[in-house]
Amino acid sequence: MKKFQIKRYLKRFAVIIVLFAVLGTAVFYRYESGRQSYSATAVISYTNEDAKEGLAPDLSEIDVKEISSAKVVDMVFQELGLSYTDYYVGNLRSRIQIDPVTSTQSELIEESLNKEGEEYTRKPTEYVITFTANHDEGEEFARDFLNTLVAQYTLYYSENHVSQSASGNNLSEIYTKNYDYIEMMEKIDEVTKTTMESISGRAAADEQFRSVESGYSFYDLYYRFDLIRKNVLSDIFAEILNKKITKDQDILLSKYNNRISEYGLENIKNNDESEEIWNIIESYVNMMKESDNTNITYEYILDEVYDTYNNSDSQDTENTDKSSTADIDRTVEYDQLIYDYVEDRTSYEYAVIDTAYCTYINSLFSGEVASDEESQLYIQERIQSLVEELNELYSLLAVTNAEYNSYLGAKNINILSSVGVQENINLKFYMLVAFIALLLAASIAAIIFGRTGDIVDYYMNMDRHLGIPNRAKCDSFLEDKEKHILPVDYYCGVIRVANLGSLNEQYGRAEGDKILKYFADLAQEIFLMGDDSFVGYNGSGIFMIMGRCGNKDVLNQKKTFFELAVIEKNKEQKAEILYQIGTAVAGEEKIFDIRKLNSRAFTSVGKEVYGSVQKKEEANG
Known about the structure:
Layout: H1 6-12, H2 14-29, E1 37-46, H3 70-80, H4 89-94, E2 96-100, H5 104-115, E3 126-133, H6 138-162, H7 173-176, H8 181-205, H9 218-243, H10 249-290, H11 298-314, H12 330-365, H13 373-412, E4 413-415, E5 420-424, H14 427-461, E6 462-463, E7 468-469, H15 471-481, E8 490-497, H16 500-507, H17 509-527, E9 534-539, E10 542-548, H18 552-572, E11 579-585, H19 586-589, H20 594-603, H21 613-619
Antiparallel strand pairs: 1-3, 1-4, 1-5, 2-3, 6-7, 8-10, 8-11, 9-10
Helix pairs in contact: 1-14, 2-14, 3-6, 6-13, 8-9, 8-13, 9-13, 10-11, 10-12, 10-18, 16-17, 17-18
């Protein structure tokens, strides 16, 4: 069954939900009576050097709407420990009001200039922030919420417009993903390097800052990270390479072969684009050299270059809109061409370097490797120790950075008055409450209705045991697809559990169902490659796979990953699973009809079976 995703249902019925809420609020307005409410008020001032020009320290325009943004209000929720079931974020955001504080003199100047036809825009540096709490929430809630809102906005402003946020610690994913040891070290090195670059910028920005809580400056943290990276990390890296320690040699080589293929495809694209750009640049240079008339302007030459280029393109492209290039600033386009060319060539060269690295790893691990339990246990302990040491540093960095951001925020935003609270009656507020309540009711109804549709779809089109589309859904998918011409890289595949009958007889139907479930999960993990891909169960131990593969090499690699996974599974259990597989790619077969391509995939299933551990070991020698 599809996951319970509230946003999906709300998006589907958004128009109906909004219309229901608007009409309901209009009816409710006639019967609404006022109730007491509380307004808390505070005044803040932006004090950085460019604030009078309406600019933040990072030279971006000051946007006071950030005070009531979802991010800041969510920070308030976390700080006050508010429950999302008791308080609705959108409702609280709607009660926050920000008004500029302007002098009478500024208003008179603006009014006078506007009368004379001159545009004058005030850019105040002081703002009044008001938060309104309802009768049930009370006066203290209004005061606490606004106090916390101002404090959290100061921190947010500092992180986004003054300082940089703390570098994320992504080291945990090296254990959650199926990385080999060399890949784990690559990831650790990448994360550490990124962190050091971030710390270096903050250290240069404020050399005197030192956290009271952690006792560290950013320079101290930078040198600690640098020491670990140069010594411990590089030592483990070298040990893995020297001793050729790996979890699984075949999978490791397959991964790096796949990376090499991806770099190759990327470089074909980058090379084609850079050659195309270079042709335009050469045309411009040649016309400048061949022109003897010094009065010819660059606009004329660039127009001729682009017209020639566009005309040559139009011979191969139908319905070219020539008029769309008439008013283009050619100098801007030419500069952009240079930037694009440099970017494409840079990407190309980086990919060449990465390809060479992957080729080196492949050559290094192609021979005899160390995959014994003792070697793996040793390197695992070293990596774990390294990660623990880095995690301690990240904790210190988080504390130091949080204190630094608070310090910067206080330097750039001053609170000119303490929070005051007054009672008032606000009819508009209660209209908004009614609107939100009706909006929530309509949303809940939409969620129930949408979820009911999911349940019906689940029971009609899903195999409840395997958790993938059943035969009826497979037929429905083919019917939808046969209305369209397939792209050249679209493929159909068939996976058949060859010995399902014998396994059922020998170990029972329950064991056979477990095998089918394993194949269903594995096929989804490997062959689902986008929204247009499909994995379904056609019955009798047959799985259907369809989707876009990019090219046949990528598809073959995924078939190899599938076989390796099954072989590893067979090593762990007494019942050996054997399967047959057949695939057909539209471009290779010259078949662009889904049903014909699917039939070709079925006929391509030969007698050869895969998954045998013994056969694989004999093949490897």
